Amino acid sequence: MLKHAVWRNVTVIVMAGGKSRRMGEDKRWLAIEGQSLLEWVLAKAEQVPAKELLLSVEEASPMLRELAGCYDARLLEDREKGNGPMQGLWQGLSEMQTEYACVLSCDMPFFDFSILEEMVKETFSKAERPMAVIPVTGGHRQSWGALYHRSMAEHFEKALQAGKREPWDVLEGLEQAFYELPEEHRAAFFNVNTQADLRLARGRARNLSRKMKMITISAPRSQTGKTTFIERLLPKLQESGLRVGVVKSDCNDQEIDHPGKDSYRFHEAGADAVALVSSDGYCIQQRTEGRAPLEEVAMQLQDVDLVLVESRNHGCAPWISLSRGTRTSLVTEDTAALFTDTPKQNAELREYDLDDMEVAKEIVFFLSAQVPQKQED
Q: Do the bridges between strand 132-137 and strand 140-141 make them parallel or antiparallel, or are there none, so unpaired?
């Protein structure tokens, strides 16, 4: 919970125009873990001790009015339609009662206001304050999540009159301050613009609600290279500080032990579970009536941050699907990304090179909602 007094001099503006051209449908109402994208953002904004929360929309509707009331937000409807976010920025900055506004887009479900705490404090500590304070993560300037001074309203108004629609067109000519954030905060600025983005977001959100983070590595057939993919990925994850366990789901009813071994004899004699303990570890073989729930098995692993599940079709969300030497891939509603050597299989899914382990590492960190540790020089 943010408590710093400077937030009382800030207005939070959530931009929710509703066009969603790249998504193909109104993304404001798309659900992630049972809550709409817009609600994800409003729920976080409501917790900020700001002076006021504004919800900027192109056209008000009963649903939007109800939602604004639920989160104690003042609904602002565009006076002129079709001008994009610039219209909402101008109106919001014109009508707010504070010196600065923190402006957010409704498609940023993982945004965390706490990462801006120092940025806000530093801005208000200066005698001469900039027109805009822009967060920068991984070399990328972030126009959403930025602080905008109320005097920028007139610049946005003039830009609209000149037919300009992009906020960056205005920002480029004004005094700005840039605030560098650690690379680990990059996921906070993730925008859900497309169906492919939505898949990634749903995968990450699933793990946010779990105590044990899990990702399934899947393929439509054997010999695709699931085991090899995991073998190559594990060192990358461990180098970045992630402790990883692996559960192999499809074992074709194989026995771990062989005839003649003591543990095998115990099972043959009727033991429902056998544990083997040595000086450097232990192994438990538990009989079950059917396939044990993967999450239940994963929770038995100790001292790990993430469990990778290798499975053809019995995994749990989110899935990373693999495809090699074929244009057929196993894609379900839980598939978050595809790694393939035959790209362009699915326009609604992010596709990556099957052998690119650096990208695979980044996707796993994103989906597992984990933060890579900095490497020492």
A: antiparallel
